[in-house]
């Protein structure tokens, strides 16, 4: 039963992260000490710390990484997809903003149950800068 929950949690995390967009209203503040108890709260905690650089509208990057039950990173994140445009300086700034958001958000204050469910599972959040004027 426990392994089914873990598989469900990982599948749900992949779906939520794949559909996440920088334009979503964030209900959580960066560095919030409130316990993270759901996949949505986890993604909100990371995205709340992300500030894409001006001019990055439409740029996108997917990172793959795992977290420990204490909310810290296991290893180094790895880019699995990118759509960064042609401006090399802006692309570097966009990637740096994402790595800074991850660094600022971690460690996540997982609840005991969430820490146990998410520990060591592969996550793949997509960071997409909102296109101005899009809703």
Q: What shape does the CA trace take?
A: globular
Unreliable stretches, pLDDT < 50, 5 or more residues? 4-25
Mean pLDDT, all residues: 84
Total beta strand runs? 4
Give the N-to-C terminal Cα separation: 40 Å
| Rg | 15 Å
Structure description:
- By secondary structure, this protein is α+β, with helices and mostly antiparallel strands.
- It contains 4 helices and 4 strands; from the N terminus they run H-H-E-E-H-H-E-E.
- Strands 1, 2, 3 and 4 form a 4-stranded antiparallel beta sheet that branches.
- Strand 1 (60-67) and strand 2 (73-83) form a beta hairpin.
Question: Could you outline the blueprint of secondary structure elements for this entry?
Answer:
Elements: H1 2-19, H2 39-47, E1 60-67, E2 73-83, H3 88-105, H4 112-118, E3 122-123, E4 126-128
Summarize this structure as a short list of keywords or feature phrases.
globular; four-stranded antiparallel β-sheet; 135 residues; 4 strands; 4 helices; alpha+beta
Write a concise synopsis of the structure shown.
This protein has helices at residues 2-19, 39-47, 88-105, 112-118, and strands spanning 60-67, 73-83, 122-123, 126-128.
């Amino acid at each position: 039963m426990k392994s089914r929950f873990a598989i469900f949690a990982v599948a749900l995390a992949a779906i939520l992260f794949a559909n996440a967009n920088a334009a979503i209203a964030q209900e959580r503040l960066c560095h919030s000490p409130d316990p993270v108890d759901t996949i949505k709260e986890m993604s909100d905690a990371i995205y709340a710390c992300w500030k894409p650089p001006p001019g990055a509208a439409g740029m996108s990057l997917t990172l793959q990484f795992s977290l420990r039950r204490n909310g810290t990173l296991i290893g180094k994140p790895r880019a699995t997809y990118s759509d960064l445009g042609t401006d090399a300086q802006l692309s570097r700034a966009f990637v740096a903003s994402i790595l800074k958001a991850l660094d600022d958000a971690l460690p996540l204050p997982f609840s005991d149950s969430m820490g146990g469910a998410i520990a060591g599972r592969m996550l793949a959040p997509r960071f997409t800068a909102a296109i101005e004027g899009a809703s």
